[in-house]
Amino acid sequence: MSPVEPVSNVFDTILVLDFGSQYSHLITRRLREYNVYAEMLPCTQKISELGWKPSGVILSGGPYSVYAEDAPHVDTAVFDLNVPILGICYGMQELAWLNGKQVGRGDKREYGPATLNVVDASSPLFKGVDHSVVWMSHGDKLHGLPAGYKVIATSQNSPYCGIVHESKPIWGIQFHPEVTHSTQGKTLLKNFAVDICQAKQNWTMENFIDTEIKRIRELVGPTAEVIGAVSGGVDSTVAAKLMTEAIGDRFHAILVDNGVLRLNEAEIVKKTLGEGLKINLTVVDAADEFLDKLKGVTDPERKRKIIGNTFIEVFEKEAAKIQPKDGEEIEFLLQGTLYPDVIESISFKGPSQTIKTHHNVGGLLEDMKLKLIEPLRELFKDEVRDLGELLGISHELVWRHPFPGPGIAIRVLGEVTREQVAIARKADHIYIEEIRKAGLYNKISQAFACLLPVKSVGVMGDQRTYEQVIALRAIETTDFMTADWFPFEHAFLKNVAARIVNEVDGVARVTYDITSKPPATVEWE
Ligand SMILES: Nc1ncnc2c1ncn2[C@@H]1O[C@H](COP(=O)(O)OP(=O)(O)OP(=O)(O)O)[C@@H](O)[C@H]1O
Ligand SMILES: O=c1[nH]c(=O)c2[nH+]cn([C@@H]3O[C@H](COP(=O)(O)O)[C@@H](O)[C@H]3O)c2[nH]1
Ligand SMILES: NC(=O)CC[C@H](N)C(=O)O
Ligand SMILES: [Mg+2]
Q1: Where residue 354 falls among pLDDT bands split at 50, 70, 90?
Q2: How confident is the model at residue 108 (pLDDT cuts 50, 70, 90)?
Q3: Is 456 assigned a ligand-binding role in the annotation?
Q4: pLDDT of residue 316
Q5: Distance of CA 214 to CAs 206, 375, 401, 443, Å?
Q6: Where in the chain is the domain with CATH 3.40.50.880?
């Protein structure tokens, strides 16, 4: 079998070397918005181990000081690639450090907007970029020009705000073009990638489908079979559809009904994925198994672990039942890993604290000896959605709010019983129905109802009631790392509250959650 080409070999690629800035991934995003493929790797990447040749390299910003003893440094083989290089903030300081060491602490930190003063308007980096606002975030600065460089831009606080090598295509800028506060930053990045690096602007999801299907077929070969867990969520559906396009019925999708899915979810997924998208789908009803194991459990982390482990058990059992036609064993496992997951795991800064255990079905199946296929591992969520639409997945499914694997079990606070799940499910259904009716579904990133384990007194039809409380959550976010609560009109909330109390037995009161993330999280558990 011929070696399978990585995406970075098929598309002209800008390599972003990450020195740990909180904005690094935005560089990649911005370039892709211009249909230029960009990939981020840690700054410690050995160039000889890259396996492909980038069209250009960007050195990102970072929290370190280049002159510090433990500061990270780029593999200097990057300069032997003879491709254009752009250093951003720490990246520029790194260029200067390697070339005369004239970097040190500035007299003041510069954090926030500054006005760019373009000295050399003929510089291709500044085509269409004039005296605009740029975003600064640094405490160190260049104390002099590195040997062989000249100044092409200044700012009030940075005499070396933009520099370029006299004879080589190596550029440095002190500000961050990737953040939106730099009003013409996107243009600058495009100038670098398209004009200076000559990268083709052919990174489109149409092209990606073709190359990816080819890649999957080569990887899997003519007979091997693939299994994958699907949830009816966006990521696993898009991955499953792509797999089906590539190898048809040799892909086996498994949906586990864990008893804590949304109302009618298993039937809906069966219809849309199985019948509609022609994905070879098995639905496993494991509700009893999950709910039995959750009996008496109230601790959120224990719930998550029980569900994660049971997922694996059920999935393994089902996978063992699938008998490939050639009598061989299943060889591959499909996973819906996205680029943000990859980016998180390439960080060289060490693990951060566990806030909650996000379950991930495939990630724990190591002893199954299956080889992983992750067709979405180069894509951001919005790219996955574009891809989904192109693959003929309905707009409604593609734009569905995310739904966590542990499902309603982490939205029923306290013990998870069939009755409690039924109440939460019904309230959630009404809430989402009203959100859709009000035309707000696509304005909200995620919305759901939680059932609280407290009772409260009410009065209905002159009778005293003593029932539970539903908390509604709706958030706006781009990355789910931070989130704001959604500002509903009072009339909307009033209507939803009335419907839930009237229609859902067991609920006497409704509240709306007005906490952002942080300090709260999106889910309540
Ligand atoms: N009920 C389920 N049955 C089978 N697999 C599941 C189930 N729930 C989750 N998974 C698996 O866990 C993975 C992670 O879930 P996650 O919610 O992050 O992604 P998704 O459901 O595909 O998309 P979305 O983020 O839109 O909900 C899924 O891609 C799927 O492979
Ligand atoms: O697949 C998943 N498995 C999980 O265990 C899980 N926990 C939270 N989430 C989703 O992640 C996003 C951020 O949620 P939190 O602020 O609660 O961590 C939100 O979109 C949550 O719905 C999960 N998704
Ligand atoms: N944003 C950055 O890249 C900062 C670089 C360096 N740590 C400084 O303070 O100047
Ligand atoms: Mg999901």
Answers
A1: low
A2: confident
A3: no
A4: 85
A5: 13, 11, 30, 36
A6: 10-196
Ligand number nearest to the C-alpha of 157? 3
Mean pLDDT of the 319-325 span = 78
Which residues have a Cβ under 8 Å from the Cβ of 491 and sit 6 or more positions away? Answer: none
CB distance 255 to ligand 1 below 6 Å = yes
In Å, how far are 180, 230, 241, 278, 491 from 253, measured between CA atoms? 40, 6, 10, 11, 43
Predicted confidence at residue 122, as pLDDT, reads: 96
Percent of the chain predicted with pLDDT > 70: 94
Ligand 1 pocket, 445 CB below 6 A? no
Tell how strand 332-334 and strand 371-373 pair up.
parallel
Closest ligand 3 atom to Cα of 91: 3
Residues in CB range of 226: below 8 A, 6 or more apart: 220, 243, 247, 250, 251, 252, 330, 331, 332, 333, 334, 373
Of 98, 18, 97, nearest in space to 58 by CA? 18
Q: Find tokens 């574009």 and name the residue.
A: 386
Give the pLDDT score at 363: 46
What is the token pair recorded at 203?
Answer: 């990174």
Phi-psi region of 503 (alpha: psi -120 to 50; beta: other; left: phi over 0): alpha
Give the residue numbers annotated as catalytic, written as ranges: 89, 176, 178
Identify the CATH number of the domain defined by range 10-196.
3.40.50.880
Domain with CATH 3.40.50.620 in the chain: 205-399
Ligand 2, residue 403: give the atom nearest the CA: 22
Residue 461: pLDDT over 90: no
Q: Which CATH architecture has domain 205-399?
A: 3-Layer(aba) Sandwich (3.40)
**Domain 418-512, CATH 3.30.70.1020 — does that match?**
no
Q: What pLDDT was estimated at residue 504?
A: 97
| Ligand 1 atom nearest to 362, measured from its CA | 31
What is the average per-residue pLDDT within 53-73?
96
Domain with CATH 3.30.300.10 in the chain: 418-512
Per DSSP, the residues of 414-434 read S---HHHHHHHHHHHHHHHHH
Does 294 score more than 50 pLDDT?
yes
- Tell me whether residue 182 is annotated as binding: no
Model pLDDT, residue 356: 66
User: Does the pLDDT of residue 406 top 80, yes or no?
Assistant: yes
Q: What is the rounded CA–CA span in Å between residue 476 and residue 22?
A: 20
What is the ipTM metric for this complex?
0.93
Q: Is 345 annotated as a binding residue?
A: no
Name which of 143-147, 314-318, 509-513 the model is least confident about.
Answer: 314-318
> Considering only CA atoms, which residue is closest to atom 3 of ligand 3?
61
Check residue 327 and report its DSSP letter.
S
- C-alpha 413 to ligand 2 mean position (Å): 15
User: Does an H or E element contain 389, and which?
Assistant: helix 381-390
Strands of 332-334's sheet in order across: 281-285, 251-257, 226-229, 332-334, 371-373
For atom 9 of ligand 1, which residue has the closest CA? 405
